[in-house]
Amino acid sequence: MNTKKEFIYNVLIILAIILLDILGDYIIFNKDIFSSNFTLFLFKTTFTITLLTIYIINYIYSVPKFLFKKKYLQYFLAFIVMILLFAGLRFFLEEVILYNITGKHNYFFDVPLSKLVSNYAWDSFYYTLRVCLVSAVVCLFFRYNENKEEIYHLQIEQEKAKLSALKSQISPHFLFNTLNNFYEELYDDKPKTAGDILKLSKLLRYVTYETNEDLVLVNKEITFIEDYLYFFKRRYEDNFHVQLHIDGFVHNLKIPSLILIHFVENVCKHGIINDKNRPANITLTINDNTLELRTKNHISTSDTYTEPGIGTKNIEQRLGFIYKDSFILDYQKNDNLFEAYLKLTL
């Protein structure tokens, strides 16, 4: 339970379940546990403990672990286990512990064994089903509210980012027109420089216009990375040693915009990229609906970064919002070697 409010709500719901059981016993069976004998009170207490145990297990583990992840078969198996746990725990508390204290059984043991087992099984199924339904609905309610809050905060952050971009940007049209003019002027005399200007214009145009969508085509992100590395190579010339490997067929897969470039940028910013004996490696593997990115680079002994920074934490939050638990993000730093690993299930 993530919040105090959630805890309080669950306590109130559990109390409501207990009170309804007491009221039901009073109305249907004319049993008043407070004015009747103490034995009945003990049996009701152990029964409540059993219900509470199943409620907590289902709420904290089974529903988030299986039901929310659409692992319905696993949840069904977990439900069977909870039925058995309910029956076993209740039998232990009532027929072992309380029997040794009070000398009384909760069920009539003078009935045939088959009927006794049948009654116990149906009771266990009914009460487990009821408490699992209640705890699942409550858990779903809080998860729904959490998602609403996440969406709200993400929308606020997106609006802030858009406003910041609007404040900081020079008119893109003016910038692109200027670059196009430079391209045309240099095309005949300096075709290589003109080509670089055109590539830079495409790179900036992609960042400015095409990344407004939450998801973009993987091949466009790959082209952006290749152009990004191209300009680093132009800067370092033959002293640039970053190896990019791309394996697999892209299809029409989409990923969050500017996610991959974050890791590539970290390699170029923090990594040693001008030593041919210690080249940096960037490997992108696409297999079916899975995308994996691995980066490996040496870092200088003077580089103090030892853990993901704010940018990386923002990336992780963004991935968590889009993919929930369907992604893996891992970092390893051993001596002067830094490795990053990202896996997305698309």
UniProtKB/TrEMBL annotation:
- Domain (Signal transduction histidine kinase internal region) spans 161-240
Q: Which domain of life is it from?
A: Bacteria
InterPro entries from the xrefs?
Bact_2-comp_sensor_kinase, Sig_transdc_His_kin_internal
Alphabetized Pfam families for the sequence: His_kinase (PF06580)
Entry keywords, A to Z: Kinase, Membrane, Transferase, Transmembrane, Transmembrane helix
Can you list the GO cellular component terms from the UniProt entry?
A: membrane
Query: Which molecular function term from Gene Ontology is one that the record holds?
Result: phosphorelay sensor kinase activity
> Transmembrane ranges?
7-29, 41-61, 73-93, 125-144
In Swiss-Prot or TrEMBL terms, this protein is called Histidine kinase
